[in-house]
């Protein structure tokens, strides 16, 4: 089978109204307009299929990872009014990330997102409550230079954002949709990337920009479970290349075993193929989870001295012989799924997650909680993924657009 090439896309994005101006919103699949414009990374209709204890899933998929606002203007001052919700898991606070403003592709402002609201979730996901901490926040940005500018505002990847108003000292227009090929990526917290302060530090964002791709990042922290409604959302969305990075959440939650994992992967892919029969798919396994590679779930968090934590699997080693799934076994099965489907002529490739971070990398890079990368490692993962998948000799080479 010949190596697939990414074809030009029709563009993605949605023009939304903020106050008296139109802007282009990209990187989302739906919006909630109850209190402004809230980007959602799953269609609202998918919520009807969430589990009864789905409050964490609901919150995570409303986080703004990879979502950006794009506009053109000759303004020198820009005001953005918004609400930003920080998540709490019982008493454990979730991240507060940055907002990044770029002019013609270069960052000109990096500010910590204001916390105007708190959403408190139970660890089991069956209860949630919201608290308003302050009125909507208005952020003021200066935009140096005369003439028309392309402005991009990257939203905080680990927070829920309600955009309410935008004004400037000159007319504002929605940017033209990107003509770059569309890349949909689905993965776990290691694709959601809330650990890095900046939304532009998420590795799928870095990889997309290196490869000139228009990204929809469906990295859902703790929620990459091969859910059928996620497959249906991907199937219904424009895409020129799709990647699925699967394994760690399923092992960590012990939500599948050796018997059920492979059929579930095939079922997910079959649903995606309903909307994308010929789109190249890269099926990727997880990066190294030190100390938990051959130990089944469930996962737990150990609190250490100095405020440090360690994420690790806690299952009994003897359960593997009884069918429990491990990280090592998940990689073996994913490779076989890709092999079988590619042999039938399907445009699908396998990427071993250990090539992004593996045993030989432990001396150079660290996982602060033994599971999630830091900003430096996310950048390295992005570089490796971009080269291995979209590079000249990659699994799905990026064609130069004429």
TrEMBL record:
<dbReference type="InterPro" id="IPR013830">
    <property type="entry name" value="SGNH_hydro"/>
</dbReference>
<feature type="domain" description="SGNH hydrolase-type esterase">
    <location>
        <begin position="185"/>
        <end position="286"/>
    </location>
</feature>
<dbReference type="InterPro" id="IPR036514">
    <property type="entry name" value="SGNH_hydro_sf"/>
</dbReference>
<protein>
    <submittedName>
        <fullName>Lipase</fullName>
    </submittedName>
</protein>
<dbReference type="Pfam" id="PF14606">
    <property type="entry name" value="Lipase_GDSL_3"/>
</dbReference>
């Amino acid at each position: 089978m010949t190596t697939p090439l990414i074809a030009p896309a029709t563009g993605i994005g949605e023009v939304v109204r903020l106050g008296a101006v139109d802007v282009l919103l990209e990187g989302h699949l739906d919006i909630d307009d109850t209190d402004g414009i809230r980007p959602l990374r799953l269609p609202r209709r998918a919520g009807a299929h969430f589990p009864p204890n789905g409050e964490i899933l609901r919150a995570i998929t409303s986080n703004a990872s990879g979502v950006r606002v794009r506009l053109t203007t000759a303004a020198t001052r820009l005001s953005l009014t918004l609400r930003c919700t920080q998540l709490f898991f019982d008493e454990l606070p979730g991240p507060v990330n940055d907002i990044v403003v770029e002019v013609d592709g270069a960052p000109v402002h990096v500010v910590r997102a204001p916390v105007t609201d708190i959403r408190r979730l139970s660890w089991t996901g069956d209860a949630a409550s919201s608290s308003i901490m302050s009125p909507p926040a208005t952020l003021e940005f200066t935009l140096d230079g005369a003439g028309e500018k392309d402005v991009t505002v990257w939203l905080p990847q680990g927070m829920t954002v309600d955009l309410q108003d935008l004004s400037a000292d000159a007319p504002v227009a929605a940017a033209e949709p990107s003509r770059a090929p569309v890349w949909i990526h689905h993965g776990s917290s290691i694709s959601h990337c809330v650990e890095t302060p900046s939304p532009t530090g998420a590795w799928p964002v870095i990889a997309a920009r290196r490869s000139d791709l228009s990204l929809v990042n469906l990295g859902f922290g703790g929620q990459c479970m091969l859910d059928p409604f996620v497959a249906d959302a991907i199937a219904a969305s424009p895409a020129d290349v799709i990647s699925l990075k699967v394994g760690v959440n399923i092992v960590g939650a012990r939500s599948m075993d050796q018997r059920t994992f492979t059929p579930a992967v095939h079922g997910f892919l079959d649903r995606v193929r309903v909307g994308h029969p010929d789109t190249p798919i890269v099926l990727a396994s997880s990066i190294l989870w030190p100390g938990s590679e051959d130990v089944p779930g469930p996962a737990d968090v150990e609190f250490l001295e100095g405020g440090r934590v360690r994420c690790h699997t806690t299952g009994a080693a003897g359960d593997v012989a009884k069918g429990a799934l491990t990280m090592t076994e998940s990689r073996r099965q994913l490779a076989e799924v890709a092999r079988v489907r590619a042999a039938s002529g399907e445009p699908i490739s396998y990427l071993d997650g250990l090539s992004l971070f593996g045993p030989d990398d432990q001396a150079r890079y660290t996982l602060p909680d033994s599971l999630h990368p830091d900003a430096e490692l996310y950048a390295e993962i992005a570089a490796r993924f971009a080269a291995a998948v979209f590079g000249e000799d990659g699994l799905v080479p990026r064609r130069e657009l004429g």
